[in-house]
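Dear colleagues,

For the upcoming journal club I promised to circulate an example of a predicted protein-ligand complex. I picked one with S-adenosylmethionine because it came up in last month's discussion. The inputs are reproduced below in full, followed by the predicted structure.
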Amino acid sequence: MGIFYTEPGQKKRAELLARTLEVPIITDSAGLDIVLTITRDRLSLSIPGSSAPHALVYAEFVKGPAGYRRKRSSREMLLRAIGLRRDQQLSVLDATGGLGKDSFLMAGSGCTMHVLERNPVVAALLQDGLRRASEHTDTREIAARITFSAMDAIQYLRGIAGTENRFDVVYLDPMYPARNKSRLVKKEMQMLQELIGHEPDTEQLLNTALAAAGKRVVVKRPRTAPSLGDIAPSHSIKGKTTRFDVYMI
Ligand SMILES: C[S@@+](CC[C@H](N)C(=O)[O-])C[C@H]1O[C@@H](n2cnc3c(N)ncnc32)[C@H](O)[C@@H]1O
């Protein structure tokens, strides 16, 4: 892995990130498996040897099909799954932050979010997206409802279990292994899967969340996938490709 920056003005940012991730700054990406590029606009990830070698992955909340502007149907399903009612404020722990789309959608609907991400590269991408969102007038207010910690959620949830420090909802969207390189698996998700690999502790994550949540735990799954750890939910909300399993506390 290496960090590449495109303008001299980005040198300090590159050095800071290189120290945090303990990877070198590079001037040539040849032969590298993972490249992080810093431009004036953003931090992005590319995986030169992947099936999508030229694709760039980055967190984006200001432009494009960002989380809070996503299709109405998927937005409504998620908000129904977390039990958000009109004029109600929920505190939500997004234990598997990823690139923050779901979190931004929930924050955009008024939820107070605490987002966790344990993969240091994904955490850096998410922090960069949130920083840009906090600097833009359209998204500043939403970004202000999000706090972020780069850490493991099982460890965090164990720390708050049995304390007063409970979130109304704990939200989980762990990686689900793609069955094939189908067109349905978006390039972005494919690249994150290559970066993160297999997650062996998702059942443990659900059990820890169930012990720590205030009102409910919500798990996002592919529509036809078995429930996480074969633990039956209280009910499910199903869309065309996605399902939300809801565990009432
Ligand atoms: C499918 S992605 C989440 C996508 C996210 N919901 C979104 O809307 O962008 C899953 C992410 O959860 C993270 N993750 C998995 N287990 C975790 C844990 N125990 N603690 C923190 N992060 C975790 C992975 O590193 C990965 O980035």
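Two points we might discuss: The first strand starts at residue 2 and ends at 5. The chain is about 30% helix and 20% strand.

See you all on Thursday,
B. R.
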